[in-house]
């Protein structure tokens, strides 16, 4: 049975992966698909735990520090807290829809 993928990017990636691994393009594609399916079948909690382990291994704990709320807010594009929010959240009341 044949699989024909006519895509320049797919061809480039298959060639690069095969060359890196020293194998055929067919073997490289099959192994990549097997790995992708195995990852998809793992529970999300296991995938996140593996990412956390990798981040700890790559990170430099000596340089690490606690991040405060203002820094987190800034990453989300929020202004620093300087009093009441200009658009306070609406209170659920008569006629208000609940989410």
Blueprint of the fold:
Blueprint lengths: L7 H14 L3 H17 L2 H15 L10 H7 L24
Helix pairs in contact: 1-2
Summarize, please.
With 99 residues, the chain is mainly α.
Q: Give the helix level as a range of percent.
A: 40-55%
State the low-pLDDT regions, or none: none
Output the number of helix runs.
4
Using the alpha-carbon principal axes, give the shape. Answer: elongated
Strand content: under 5%
Radius of gyration: 24 Å
Query: How would you state the average pLDDT, rounded?
Result: 83
> How far is it from the N-terminal to the C-terminal residue, by CA?
51 Å
Main β sheet profile:
none
How are helices and strands ordered from N to C?
A: HHHH
Number of strands: 0
Provide structural commentary.
It is a single chain. This protein has 99 residues and is mostly helical. The protein has four helices and no strands. α1 (8-21) packs across α2. It is elongated, with a radius of gyration of 24 Å. The mean pLDDT is 83.
What descriptors fit this protein?
99 residues; mainly alpha; 4 helices; 54% helix
């Amino acid at each position: 049975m044949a699989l024909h993928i006519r895509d320049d990017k797919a061809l480039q990636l298959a060639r690069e992966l095969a060359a890196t691994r020293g194998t055929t393009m067919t073997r490289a594609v099959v192994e990549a698909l097997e790995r992708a399916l195995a990852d998809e079948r793992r529970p999300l909690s296991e995938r996140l735990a593996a990412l956390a382990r990798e981040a700890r291994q790559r990170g430099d704990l000596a340089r690490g520090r606690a991040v405060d709320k203002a820094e987190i807010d800034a990453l989300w594009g929020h202004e620093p807290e300087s009093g009441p929010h200009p658009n306070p959240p609406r209170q659920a009341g008569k006629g208000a829809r609940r989410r």
